[in-house]
Amino acid sequence: MSTAADRVRAVADAVLYEGYLLYPYRATSGKNQSRWQFGVLGPARAAERSIGEDDTLSAQVLLAPGPDVALTVTVRFLQLQHRAVQRRAGVGFEPVAELTAAARSWLTWDEAVECERSFGPLDRSALAVPQTFPVVVPAGCDTEQIDGGRLVRTRAELHAELTVRTETDDGLRRISLSLRNIGPPPADKDTAIAASLIGTHLIARVSGGDFVSLLEPPASALDAVGRCRQYRCFPVLAGPPGDTSVMLVSPIILYDHPEIAEQSEGALYDSTEIDEILTLRVMTMTDDEKAQARATDPLAAQIIDRCEAMSPEALLNLHGVLRDPRGGATAPGLIPEIPDGVDWWDPLADNAVDPEIDAVLVGGVRVSRDSRVRLRPARRADAQDIFFAGKIARVTSVHETVDGDRQIGVVIEDDPGADLHDWYGRHLYFAPDEVEPLSVEPPSVEPMIEGKPKWK
């Protein structure tokens, strides 16, 4: 059973490695030759010289402290590790791009090493004055002997500093966190990224107090939240819902209490894609392509091995589920389930639904016939979608296909022929996530269809 700490770390690890390696997970792929990740803090002057990223990440969060408040801040990032492949040549070694021996290959490539530093706990007296903590990661060089040669892994020294300041704001404590890379100015792009902090994020934990949500603050904290400033990051409450003891300062936009979908079998490092699609793509790779991916990076090898070992049941689990987060029955008026024991083609199944009275939940709002919505076409299924963007429409019907896909039929309000189109059934159809309800009617339950995004 996972703990609250496990949930926080799972999300933090996804943030740490987001974009680290992209499908098809091979060094020869163009998008893996020009790699880019979130949360990169470059050394001094790298950004102004256009050879690296800005050196700072900063956030302000609000804390309702108790008398025994204590704050701990954890800094997490990746340190670049260059893996050079060298072939045995006489009594010495020579650098090569690739080495193949004993049916296995190794490529020259940039890997990464996880780094984590924690500071605290800082009690009330320590928080009363600004604190600056050095973050130092030593350089390193490791050698691994392989058939016909060796791998030489080198890491540059990293220098950064974390600053913690607090001040009072409307009865709360505003905590300012700033992490800055103070490494020396680099000579070029290669030395800049080698001296960068990659995938950088902060985890702030408090005991004897409560963090305030910056996304959904109580009314009493609205003004104080409005005065908080963030730079290159997005602080959110982490841990399970209701937990106010952990704040994740992420370089990626998240919502409060994010979690990894339970269907996810493991990291794929490309959360803008759907796990099911990526897994199926990996399964279609040729043996040679899989070998190239394994030769590129140990983490790529793990992805290939995991996908090859995935059971049909695990793959089916990625396809998505219908989940009621409140554990209740289907809300009255929503599209009903086909009765047990009835096939979808049976006329009894047709009698169970009625598109003119059935409804669907969009963002927790019940949408049915005569609901007013704003159109937000996203799939571009039709070239005319661009003309419908932002238009106000009236819902005429709600449908569900035999595959479980929902479709909302509408007519455009300012279309002079709207009534005529509705009369003879010439409707436009959009998915629920392509419409924005314009009236709020809180439902009794809040089912959610999850098509297996990385974040749920």
Written description of the protein model:
With 456 residues, the chain is an alpha+beta fold. It has two domains: 37-260, no CATH class; 347-450, SH3 type barrels (Roll), CATH 2.30.30. 19% of the residues lie in helices and 36% in strands. The chain has helices spanning 4-17, 30-33, 124-127, 189-194, 222-226, 275-283, 287-296, 298-309, 312-317, 347-351, 385-388, 418-423; strands at residues 56-89, 92-96, 98-101, 104-107, 109-123, 131-137, 140-146, 149-155, 158-169, 172-181, 198-211, 234-237, 246-250, 321-323, 360-362, 365-367, 372-375, 392-400, 406-412, 428-430, 435-437, 448-450. The strands form five sheets. Strands 1, 2, 5, 6, 7, 8, 9, 10, 11, 12 and 13 form an eleven-stranded antiparallel β-sheet that branches. Strand 3 and strand 4 form a beta hairpin. Helix 7 (287-296) runs antiparallel to helix 8 (298-309). The longest helix has 14 residues, at 4-17. The model is unreliable at 322-332 and 440-456 (pLDDT under 50).
SSE layout and pairing:
Layout: H1 4-17, H2 30-33, E1 56-89, E2 92-96, E3 98-101, E4 104-107, E5 109-123, H3 124-127, E6 131-137, E7 140-146, E8 149-155, E9 158-169, E10 172-181, H4 189-194, E11 198-211, H5 222-226, E12 234-237, E13 246-250, H6 275-283, H7 287-296, H8 298-309, H9 312-317, E14 321-323, H10 347-351, E15 360-362, E16 365-367, E17 372-375, H11 385-388, E18 392-400, E19 406-412, H12 418-423, E20 428-430, E21 435-437, E22 448-450
Antiparallel strand pairs: 1-2, 1-5, 1-8, 1-10, 1-11, 3-4, 6-9, 7-8, 9-10, 11-13, 12-13, 14-22, 15-16, 17-18, 17-21, 18-19, 19-20
Helix pairs in contact: 6-8, 7-8
